[in-house]
Amino acid sequence: MKxxxxxxxxxxxxxxxxxxxxxxxxxxxxxxxxxYDVDTKTxxxxxxxxxxxxxxxxxxxxRYVFEFKKIY
Length: 72
What we know:
This protein is of the alpha+beta class. 22% of the residues lie in helices and 32% in strands. A five-stranded antiparallel beta sheet has the order 1-2-3-4-5, with no helix packed on it. The longest helix has 8 residues, at 40-47.
């Protein structure tokens, strides 16, 4: 599991499971979600930008693009 460092007012932390291609996103609210089948290129793109820009990237390129499920 890969930790994706992020500085965001909404997102606390993110992890990427390379074997399943699942992105796990923990929000400051305490909720967390799993985003399914997030391709490696998307993860490479988010890792290539500054930590404080990753929240915006998540909102525009991941949040409603990939299938997801609220876990808690």
